[in-house]
Amino acid sequence: MQIYLPIAELSVSIWLLLGLGGAVGYLSGLFGVGGGFLLTPLLIFIGVPPPVAVATSANQVVAASVSAVYAHWRKDNVDFKMGTMLLLGGLVGSSFGAYLFAVLKRIGQLDAVIALSYVIILGTIGGMMLTESIRALRAKPGAQPVVRRKRLNDHAFIRALPFKMRFRKSQLYISLLMPVSLGFLVGILAAIMGVGAGFLLVPAMIYLLGMPTAIVVGTSLFQIIFVTANVTMLHAITTQTVDVTLALMLLVGSVIGAQYGVRHGARLRGEQIRGLLAALVLAVAIALAIDLILPPDDQFFLELGPR
Amino acid sequence: MKGFAFILVLLCAGEAFAQATPNAPRGPAPADSPLITDLSSHLIAITSSFTGTDLLLFGAIDEPGEVVVVVRGPTATSVVRRKRPTLGFWLTRRSESYDNVPSYYAVASSKPLQDIAPVNLLQRLQIGTENLRFRYLGARRPEDVAHYHQAVIRLKTRDGLYRENIGAIDFLGPKLFRTAISFPSTVPVGTYQTEVYLIRDNRIIAAQSTPLFIDKQGIEQEVYDFSRQEPAVYGLVAVLLAVFAGWLAAVVFRRG
Hints:
heterodimer; A: 307 residues; mainly alpha; two-stranded antiparallel sheet; 11 helices; 5 strands; B: 256 residues; alpha+beta; Immunoglobulin-like; 6-stranded mixed β-sheet; 4-stranded antiparallel β-sheet; 6 helices; flat; disordered N terminus
């Protein structure tokens, strides 16, 4: 059964969209990421014009994140104070990112920047996470990790930063500059790559901010909701590439998938989750890198976009 | 199916003849024109189940000759970019822009085009994809960017938006002819022109032009208009819809 997408201006199978949404939603619930880093490339792959894919993914990630954060919120696994600080930076960052998006589009380098940011950022983060989790998984089963990982937030420079704030839930007393600037950085990526950037946010919150793993996922989802909502609004107003029909099809599958993801995620150990997420992130990076390295079928391509 | 189409052609052609009687108040062709044509529909409605469509163009000729059918979509600016190896990656290095690029272009003819008409005639009327004239918007000499021009045609052809159906006009006896024009699901909306030429001895004996409208209809039209006319409200609705759907699923699954 086919459905015509009014903004993307093409016809796609309903089952393909439901399946795509379900798979991405499951992973987003499992890993506490929005799933945008998977969804955007997949949508482009099935023929959706890249600007529509970026904007609609952001819209869909809002739904998946609301659905997933609800489960975490009920388990009391969200640090709202920390989330709000991240969000302050995220809103500014995503607005700045949307401006960058428009500039890059004008000078014709948007595609290259999107592709390279995917490869470089996903590759680096995925590689680091995989190394770390393999090390953790190879540790003797049953034995508790004896050495506490040296976290970056113990660094003297970070400790010296002003505007310290107490985050009771995270059991932290750190400068609010840390979550705000992290949110800003992630916000830029959200606008340019059409992702919530949970794959970057989650490890950064653990290693950079030093938050307990249990509340990291819920808190990152909380921040992602608002940042991707901002990105959706910005794209709806400036590029007019949000396809509500496409988003609806995807989110029907994804909200259901996300529920199963959260449940299954609860049965996995933290390092297992991180290992699987790392493998997934790396796989996307490699797939996109291959696309950049292999000679294309046709060196020329037409600018896609709203017609 | 073919039999049905044939009956349809006969019926509709009969109707077209009737309309073209001397006293007929309308009809694009003069009564004594040796060429009369019509489309099976003058409106393509894009609805939620639209997966592309075929239109039937049919007609009758009163004099012997070859028939060429051209369908042109609304023109637009087209940007074509070229990837080159850069530090081991294939990256966009240069792009060229053209104006007056038909968003859709189809040509069908009863014989190969060069056997029907001289090149200058084909070029003048822009018949055949290689004879399309785009307006180059860049600063280089147009000859130096010819491969960009060719790439536009190649890529549009690959996407099914440019079509050449040489020899695809079926004659049913000496006078009646028909041809199918295919539109993919990605066909742009707008006003199209259908041109039919009757050509003999390198000269155009008769020509007829009919408009064709492609438009979104129903919910598709409303969603599209909404996104263009009230973008901020549209964005807000999209976000609220997502929040509601996410919340609903979470609540339903908690109970379930």
